[in-house]
Write a structure and sequence with these properties.
alpha+beta, 5-stranded antiparallel sheet, 2 helices, globular
């Protein structure tokens, strides 16, 4: 089972954003701060309870390294990773 860790991918299981994919920015207790790079950019992160999310195995090692080193991450990098994951997921379902 996947863990909630920074730079990991998470799918929303409940709420108006059900089935949306996000990158985990940080984890604080039972809450996770998320961004998708577009509707929820880094400066407007979404706070969501862990019980309403599914942590996924996919993670972006480049983003993880940047988070750990404290280097800036761009919204375009987050959106690009999610877009690439959706395309890859679509290929597997065909």
């Amino acid at each position: 089972m996947a863990e909630f860790k920074a730079a990991g991918l998470a799918r929303s299981l409940a709420g108006h954003d059900k089935e949306e994919l996000y990158i985990i920015i940080s984890v604080q207790g039972e809450y996770v701060y998320l961004s998708d790079g577009t509707r929820r950019p880094l400066n407007k992160q979404k706070r969501k309870n862990k019980k309403h999310l599914q942590a996924m195995e996919a993670r972006n090692e480049d983003l993880e390294k940047k988070f750990l080193e404290g280097r800036p991450v761009r919204d375009e990098e987050i959106a690009g990773f999610i877009r690439a994951y959706k395309q890859e997921e679509g290929k597997k379902n065909v």
